[in-house]
Structure formats: structure tokens, C-alpha cells
Amino acid sequence: MPPAPPDPDPTPTAPTAPGPHDALHRPLRLGPVTAPNRVVFGAHHTLFAEPSDTYGEPGLVGPRMVRYLAERAAGGVGTVVCGPLAVHPDSAAMAPNTPIAWDRRVIGGWSLLANAVHEHGALAMVQLAHGGPTVSGGWSKRPAVSFGQVTHRPEGPRRLGPDDVEDLVRHFGRAARHAGAAGLDGVEVDLAGEGLLHGSMITGGDLDGRLRMVRDVLAAVRGAAGDRLAVGVSIGGDEHLGRGGLGRAGWAEAAAALAGDGLIDFVEVTGWPASSLVAPSLYADTGAVVALASAVRARVREVGGAEVPVLAGGRHVTPGEAAGVLGSGAADGVRLVRPLIADSNWVARDRDGEGDAIRRCTGCNESCSGNLVRGEPLTCATNPAVGREALLGTGTMFKAPLARRVVVVGGGPAGLEAAWVAAARGHRVSLLDREPQVGGRLHAAASLPGRGELAEFVAWRLGECRRRGVEVRTGVTATAGSVVALEPDAVVVATGAIGDARTEVAWHPPIVGADGPGVVDHESALTNVLADGPRALGAKVVIADLVGFVEAFGLAELLGGAGVDVTVVSPLAGPDAADPDTRRHLLRRARRAGAAILAQRTVAS
């Protein structure tokens, strides 16, 4: 087989400085405890809880969640926050498989967590939350409760009375005692979501009135935690409601007041769930949360809260971006979730000067936020070890006892993944791809408007192949003879799937004429447009979306932006398979590009 030219790089992305970024690696004091650095793995739903024999449903922190969180501590994170944890039976079903905090049986699992995280020198904390009107009574058989907010569920909420408030305050204190008994380092109280405590803050009146219940809760937590545990709050920073919420200035004042009271040791600013800021997709503005954190920090400092650090959430993809937040003075620490899901060694790689080896989060939200919306456990599109750390995590990949000759056919994401993993185990690997560059169909996917970051899937895997000595041959069509000529001990065929316009789905009848002239599958349509320009499909295009994801709406934006008369017809309400933030952006961007969208319709022919 003749030698092939070197494999071209995939779509270039912003370079990652090798590091280290010293601003991230300085210790951070959080009241009575000190974190070894300024990176916090923030609380987030995972659906990893274990069954509880008390309540007959999942609800306890167990080995799977502990291994998942400890993996990030092993990768250099300074503080790990487990949660959100339901503080009261009324809030047991904030999400499927929500861990609980009110029963003493939680102490065992929390102790496992504390020990596992402490083994790597990090702090371990829990976040206590009450979903209020967002909770379903379907499992708990208790009505949702609120201070008057409209429930998110079909059943109406029960309005809380004075006795209920006292009971809730006691439950927060009880959970804090459990944290102390488990050997944890801190407790974070969630004010950021649209839950019960936020509801107590928007009932009207002056700031003192709005903070009455929050202060009672924090006093109970502080009293139970004693002087050994840090106590903090997680806030949204701005509801973006215009009226009815605290707004940016109100949240800054609230944080400053709580800091001035001596009730909190840190403030975490995450953005508001309904504003796309908590888990912003690759379409979103990544600096919005930093601006909110900056406003909070400035006001906290003005009232003398210099000892109360402010942590900024948002989407800090690279260590350079995160360090820039600290360098600007907007925050004292950074809260990360998805970047640390994508690469548990994100902090350590930067610390050790290996920042260019970080496996970046692309913001696709397909397997993290997307899974949670579907009621499925958290995973990651780019990191297969997530939720399976005991099987695939750090320390589980050993050198093979005998090095083999491995040939991988296909240079898409699957082929590249197979190649670098085989090489990491000590095998001699050759990868063959018929295209002039590796990456497969991801190049087309990354060419859709706003989705260029998807090229990171390819860039990182190609980098791992290079670092591990994989021979990559592009422009080569593999045949049985050419593969056998390489004398492989094993062959991995990773040539992908093929689009078909005739594919049927359960929720849509067959389309008459789908195999006729002028009808192409989405893959061919995009390939033609990329090769010959936006008008390759004609001046008027109808896209039948039977999937409810990015393909139809991304193509509609691309065509509409070039002046093509394009209509999306779907039996669904929209891109329903996408996470909420991606869905919102897809609809908005397609419409702004001039695309017409006909939802909940069928295509007869």
C-alpha cells in the first residue's frame, strides 16, 4: 500500500495554552475550611442515587455517585459539591432519582463521599434544596408546596403556613447535622432555582421581609454546622423577569445582606434555569453569568464582606477562560460542571502543563442535560466513562499483556476512539480512512451555523492518536486485501451509518414518494449544500423533520440565511429531542433566518 499523505487537521479551534494558569491553583478560603484551589465541581442532577429500603425508591448517595464525584477530586478539583439533595419529603421528587437529605441513613453514603474526596486533598460538600412548586407529587403522594407561586405540575400546590415553615427550617438544620456527622466540609443552600426558598423571596415587601425565611434557614444550618463546616448559598443572580423577581440589583443586595449577617461563607452564582445560563449550549453567550457574579461580588465587597468569596458559574470551557474570570476580578473562584464531566482531569492537566490534552466540553448538551430532560442518568457524548467510572474511569485501563497489531477502518469519532484506546493499551494501531481528512460526518455536523465546536470531538481524539503513536492513513479505501496485507491480529470496522430518506418512524406514517426524484436524506442534503452552495437543493425547500433534533433546524437556518425559501414540517412541536437551551436557540435562529416552521403536521407526499 503506498504511503498516504499526513492527515489534515480538523476544523481549527481556539488554541489551549498548556498552562498552568496560576490563578486557578491558588488556595481558596471558604470560612473555616480552605480548598487547595479555586475550581469547584458544582452541584447538579445525575440520577445516580441508590435505592433506599426506607422509602422504596432511589434516594441515597452510594458507590456509583461517590466514584463519579471522587473521580473529579482525583483529577485536581478543589471542592466537590454533591447535590441537589431533597431536604424534605415534600421535595423528594425534584427530579427522578433525587438523593434525599432528611433521613439519618444518608450519613453512611455521605461519609463514603467525604472519605473518597478527602483522599485526594479536596473539600466535600452537599447542596440542600427544596423544589417547592417544581416538584411532582406522583411519587411522594404529597402535594407540591409553595408561597403562592404557580406549580410546574398538573396538581395544584398547597400554600405553606407558619407551622410548615418551622418544619422546613428544622429539616434544613437536621440535614446540616447529618453533614457534620458524615465528616463533610460544608453545606450549600440552594436559592438559585425556581424552588421554595426563592418563592419565599419574591412575596413582596422590603429586603428584610423577603429574606426572613432564608435567614431562618441559614441560621438553623449555621447552628447545626457549628464552626467546622462552611455554609454557602447558590443564587441565580437575576430571574430575567422584568418584574416579580429580585432582579440583578436585588440579588446583589440579598447576597451582601447575608454576608453582612455572618450567615454565609461563600456565594455561588449560577444563572437562572429558565434563562439558558445554568447549562448554556454551544449557542449561548458564555459571559452572562460572569457579569452577574461580578455585580454580586462588587456589592458584597461594598458592605465589608471581603472574606466572603464569590464563585462564578457559566461555561468556562478552557482553563484560560476560567483564569480570565478570576484575573478580571469578577469572581474569586469558578464553578464548573460540564467541562469536568467531559474531562475529570481538567484541573490536573492544566496544573501539570498539559492543557492541550484536555478533552473539551462542546456544549452539545446531548447526553448531560439532554439525558436528564428525558429522565435518563447523566452521561457524556465525549466521555464514555461518565457514570461508569468503576468500569472505565481513571486507573481502569491497563496495558495489554501482549501487544497486538490492530487495524481500524474508519476515521470518524468511533474509529478515532477505538484507535487511541487500543494504542493506550500498548497495541500497534493503524487507522485507515478513505476521506482526505479524518472526522467522518462530524465535519458536516460542525458546519451547521453555531455548531463549530463539535469539531472538538475530532480534534481531541486525533491528538490522542498522535500522542500515542497511531499510524493514521487518509485517502485510503480499505479492502479485504489491503487490510489483510497489514497482518492484523484484530480489525475494528467503524464506518458509520448511512442516511435514508425512506426511513419510517413510529409517530409518522410513511411518506408517499419518499424515494422519488427531488427527495434526499438530511445527510445528502447537507453534503450537497456544503459542496455546491446553499442553492444546491433549489430555491424552495421543504424539510420533513421526523427526528426533532438539530439536523432539520440547523439546515433550515443555513438555507434561510442564504435566501432560500425553506419550510420545516414536523409531527412534533419542534426540536423536542434536544435539551431546553438547544431547543430554544434552534427555533429562534431558524426563524430569524427566515425559515417557516409548521409544527405538529404530517407530510402526506
Give a quick set of tags describing it.
605 residues; alpha/beta; TIM Barrel; Rossmann fold; FAD/NAD(P)-binding domain; eight-stranded parallel barrel; 33% helix
Textual characterization of the structure:
This protein starts with 27 loop residues before the first strand and ends in a 7-residue tail after the last strand. The protein folds into three domains: 37-392, TIM Barrel (Alpha-Beta Barrel), CATH 3.20.20.70; 405-493, Rossmann fold (3-Layer(aba) Sandwich); 522-598, FAD/NAD(P)-binding domain (3-Layer(bba) Sandwich), CATH 3.50.50.60. It is built from 21 helices and 21 strands.
What proportion of the residues form beta strands (DSSP E)?
A: 5-15%
- Strand order of the biggest β-sheet: 3-6-7-10-11-12-13-14
> What is the CATH domain class of the largest domain?
Alpha Beta
- Flag low-confidence runs: 1-16
Q: Helix- and strand-based class?
A: alpha/beta
Helix content: 25-40%
Evaluate the radius of gyration.
26 Å
Individual helix count: 21
Please tally the β strands and state the result.
Answer: 21
User: Any idea of the CATH topology of the largest domain?
Assistant: TIM Barrel
State the CATH architecture of the largest domain: Alpha-Beta Barrel
Characterize this entry briefly.
This protein has 605 residues and is of the alpha/beta class. It is built from 21 helices and 21 strands. The strands form six sheets. An eight-stranded parallel β-barrel has the order 3-6-7-10-11-12-13-14, surrounded by seven helices. A four-stranded parallel β-sheet has the order 17-16-15-18, with helices on one face. It has a three-stranded parallel β-sheet with strand order 19-20-21, covered by helices on one side.
